[in-house]
Amino acid sequence: MKRRDIVLLVLFVPCVALVILFGFGLIPLSDERLGALLKETIPRLAAGGYLVLFMILKGFGEAFRPKWVPLHLLWALPCFAVAAANFPYTALIAGRATIEQAELIPLFLLKCFGIALLEESFFRALLVPLLEEKGGRLFSVLVSAVLFGAMHLFNLINGDIGAVFLQVGYTFLLGCMFAVMLLFTKNIWLCVAVHFLFDVGGTIVTDLGQGPFQDTVFWCLTAVFGVLCTVHILITLFRMRKK
Question: How far apart are the C-alpha atoms of 8 and 26, rounded to whole Å?
């Protein structure tokens, strides 16, 4: 057995243990909000870290060792704008929504990073190149985005049907954006950064506070930057296909 396989085998057991212990809430905590954050954070960090290491050691880690090209950062600005528009600016300023338990913000940020790392590693760094080999770029974008959106159907277990299907719709669009971003920049960390920023803005009130935060300004910003970014992504995809 090769050394890298031994490393993966040794790390697999503690990663599975962390996923089970925290994912199933086997460690009771008196603070309900802290318990919920740990339940969502630790399993994703463990699984995401293990997946990244697995891909690198198995020769699928090219996207995790990118060349930082200034043009790619400039190209990604519309994607970052979509993520920034997901923040509840006016609701927080007006006091309609509030942030509580500020001491949990670092853990909350870790949760958002864990989600971004795990989902981008699997759906983009792993799936997109495999799908591109089988069916081309457009095929890889659409299929990976469909799978990414469909994954959120699991939220039907605890969520409202209308809200879940809305989530499936916009995560499909986000999946297309992330896939094209990876294909264009070859840099999974840009995808992780945008995904992280998007989740921070979209869940900071629901995770750490209370109150309605999706007001008129929120939806207007989402619509404007969403449309602009969609055009940007379609133009990029069209140019990549021509090449």
Answer: 25
Report the C-alpha gap between 227 and 210 in whole angstroms. 29
121 neighbors 55 (Cβ within 8 angstroms)? yes
- Tokens 């619509």, located at residue: 223
Could you tell me the residue ranges of all domains in the chain? 66-242
Q: Tens digit of pLDDT for each residue in 78-95?
A: 999 999 999 999 999 999
Reference 118, options 167, 170, 50, 175; nearest CA is 50
| 87 SS3 class | coil
Neighbours of 214 (CB within 10 A): 14
Q: Tell me the C-alpha distance between 183 and 139, whole Å.
A: 12
Sign of CA dihedral 103, 106, 108, 111: negative
The DSSP symbol for 122 reads: I
Q: Is the pTM of this model over 0.90?
A: yes
